[in-house]
Amino acid sequence: MSLRARVVIVGGGVIGTSVAWHLARAGVRDVVLVERDELAAGSTSKAAGGVRAQFSDELNIRLGARSLEAFGSFEREVGQDIGLHRVGYLFLLATPEQVASFEAGVRLQNSLGVPSRLITPREARRLCPLITTDGLLAAAYSPDDGHCTPEAVVHGYARAARALGVRVLRHTEVTGIDLRGGTVTGVRTSLGPIATDTVVCAAGAWSRPVGAMAGVDLPVQPLRRQIAVTGPVPEPPARLPMTIDFTTSLYFHREGPGLLLGMSDPDERPGFATGTHDRWLPRLTEAMRRRAPALLDLPRTGGWAGLYEDTPDHNALIGEAPTVSRFLYATGFSGHGFLQGPAVGEVIRDLYLGRAPFLDVGPLSAERFAADAPRPEANLV
């Protein structure tokens, strides 16, 4: 196989397919998306599916809010039902420091049009009867947030992009990126070469080696995160929010008749392992006992593990390499890639076309670490 493309996108998850659709919709022809496995087979299909704009960083708030708008119109614009449930996000806060941090976050979110607010523990329990309020000081809630189905988003974007002329190569591995004098000239794949002058790296947890093929350092490391699924919830609330105990990071939301739940594991070490294990269960059980004891009565019926794509400050890498023309990247979302996918596709489209995106993503450039200008995000799950 020998192809020519105006743009080659590496990675067939939510970021890659969003970029492909946005480019094609803007009239960019000869776009090729390369995925070494099935579409959404990486981190996207393992995501919890939460969508929100409740962040501490203005850029993340705006990326989240813009994506929420896109998720809300997804079926009309893209032609795919994504199972969107606008049930809100509920952060449970148990220390004065957490309350102060979220108070500041709510002020910033409100100034940007996000309808979040602080509520009392009693109000939080009305929204989520599965929790106990022992030790809670407050909660933060935004009704516009919620959750949807990650695979549906990817396949919706991919199908719509194909209809606009994008070529999607599955089971095709990128083996190298060719440069001449600091300019991209092609991409080597397991199916043959693709001549191109533009590469977009949307390879998630695998982005660092892809960047290295072009001499670009993308400081991303993979970290396993596990999710469990429970049996049916007796008398479930009609609109159970995505609920997060901020102290332990325990989170859960409705998944069919049961719940999808998870939390971070401080004993996990970076690596590409995605097998499930039971070492996290004692800590998970203790978190449920302290904050949501009703969950202890639900049988665990399944689960899986996927990879976060972490950066040193737990914030995304979005931009274009200054030393290689033209190597663009959107990666390192540290757990927020799915929910920011629609807006990021729009941003990369505009960077490729040479026009100003709806927000300045310069502070999210990978060069921020060399410049000692990290941009930390506080509202991590």
From TrEMBL:
Transmembrane segments: none annotated. Keywords: Oxidoreductase. It holds the Pfam family DAO. The keyword Oxidoreductase applies. Residues 6-351 form the FAD dependent oxidoreductase domain. The keyword Oxidoreductase applies. InterPro entries: FAD-dep_OxRdtase, FAD/NAD-bd_sf. SUPFAM superfamilies: FAD-linked reductases, C-terminal domain, FAD/NAD(P)-binding domain. It comes from the Bacteria. This is FAD-dependent oxidoreductase. The lineage of its organism: Bacteria, Bacillati, Actinomycetota, Actinomycetes, Kitasatosporales.
